[in-house]
């Protein structure tokens, strides 16, 4: 079974950009470089429409600037237009065909268009020419993970971490181990993610899941508590907290946690089922019967991990 990419961390490759020149307040730029600088400012400020217009004006005056095509492609990708992004990244690559950043972002755009085989070719081309970035390996690893190619995903994420050891990289590698049922290796990765960033809430959550899957319920509860401290909106934690409390026969506390989980996910059949078990343990048969019925009436949602893309 492949890893659900909704949980994987996906990357867009970044590259250094020249220092911006001072803008002339209220004045239109006089040349292509001025329009490019205006585009960079607009992109930095989150005004994607203005950035797109400025980069377009710059390129209308000077087409022979691969980095400008690249930046326009990045704006299109941020704006949710991978088709136009693909055109721009391809234009940049015509001038610099082995540029790893351009290849990686073209791969990301192609992947968003559902053209995963072409995306893989772009990532492998960057690796072949030794211009790959950590983002190249992360995105390629995510495709392998989703396809259930566990060994390839592990090797690829490990290569990303070797280039840039960060919390997100260890998280992705841990998710592959978790999905394959290797909770020991998975937890080791999540611990390294937390070592990189002590406030990495999702790392605490998955470390808690590993402890729960291994029967270490007290340890899991501490991890889930920390994950909620870091992200109070992380409602999925309540369900797993309730499961651990039930396993520890702390049924009243389990009931409270599971009710909070159901408030966040009222259509989650698993939450209803776990509530039914807990009500049963408390001898509340009518309530248990109600939630057993609700669990059967709903399609159970998945709690499995996915690699962050």
Task: Describe this structure as you would to a colleague.
It is a single chain. The protein has 309 residues and is mostly helical. The protein is built from 16 helices and no strands. The longest helix has 14 residues. It is elongated and about 80 Å long. The protein starts with 31 loop residues before the first helix and ends in a 12-residue tail after the last helix. The model has no long low-confidence stretch (mean pLDDT 90).
Short overview:
The protein has helices at 32-44, 48-61, 66-78, 82-95, 100-112, 116-128, 134-146, 150-163, 167-179, 183-196, 201-213, 217-230, 236-247, 251-264, 269-281, 285-297.
Fraction in beta strands: under 5%
Discrete helix count: 16
Tertiary shape: elongated
Rg over alpha carbons = 24 Å
Overall pLDDT metric: 90
How many distinct folded domains? Answer: 2
CATH superfamily of the largest domain: Tetratricopeptide repeat domain
Report the end-to-end length measured between terminal Cα atoms: 18 Å
Count the strands?
0
Biggest pleated-sheet summary: none
Question: What's the CATH first level of the largest domain?
Answer: Mainly Alpha
Question: Spans of 5+ residues with little confidence (pLDDT < 50)?
Answer: none
- Could you say what the CATH topology of the largest domain is called? Serine Threonine Protein Phosphatase 5, Tetratricopeptide repeat
Helix content: 55-70%
Q: Architecture of the largest domain, CATH level 2?
A: Alpha Horseshoe
What is the string of helix and strand elements? HHHHHHHHHHHHHHHH
Class derived from helix and strand content: mainly alpha
């Amino acid at each position: 079974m492949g890893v659900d990419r909704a949980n994987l961390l996906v990357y867009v490759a970044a590259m250094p950009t020249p220092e911006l020149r001072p803008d002339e307040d209220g004045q239109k730029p006089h040349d292509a470089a001025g329009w490019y600088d205006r585009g960079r400012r607009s992109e930095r400020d989150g005004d994607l429409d203005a950035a797109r217009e400025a980069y377009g004006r710059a390129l209308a005056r000077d087409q022979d600037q691969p980095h400008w095509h690249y930046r326009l492609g990045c704006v299109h990708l941020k704006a949710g237009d991978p088709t136009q992004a693909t055109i721009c990244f391809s234009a940049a690559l015509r001038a610099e065909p082995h540029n790893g950043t351009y290849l990686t972002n073209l791969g990301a755009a192609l992947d968003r268009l559902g053209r995963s085989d072409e995306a893989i070719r772009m990532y492998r081309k960057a690796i072949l020419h030794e211009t790959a970035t950590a983002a190249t390996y992360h995105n390629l690893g995510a495709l392998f993970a989703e396809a259930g190619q566990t060994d390839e995903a592990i090797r690829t994420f490990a290569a990303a971490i070797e280039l840039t050891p960060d919390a997100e990289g260890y998280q992705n590698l841990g998710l592959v181990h978790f999905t394959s049922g290797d909770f020991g290796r998975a937890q080791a990765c999540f611990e390294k993610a937390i070592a990189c960033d002590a406030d990495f809430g999702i790392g605490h959550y998955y470390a808690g899941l590993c402890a729960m899957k291994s029967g270490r319920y007290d340890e899991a509860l501490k991890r889930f508590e920390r994950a909620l401290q870091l992200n109070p909106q992380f409602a999925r934690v309540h369900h797993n907290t309730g499961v651990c409390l039930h396993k520890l026969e702390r049924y009243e506390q389990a009931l409270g946690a599971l009710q909070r989980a159901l408030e966040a996910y009222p259509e989650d059949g698993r939450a209803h089922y776990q509530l039914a078990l807990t009500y049963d343990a408390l001898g509340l048969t009518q309530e248990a019967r109600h939630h057993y019925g609700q669990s059967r009436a709903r399609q159970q949602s998945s709690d499995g991990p996915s690699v962050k893309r």
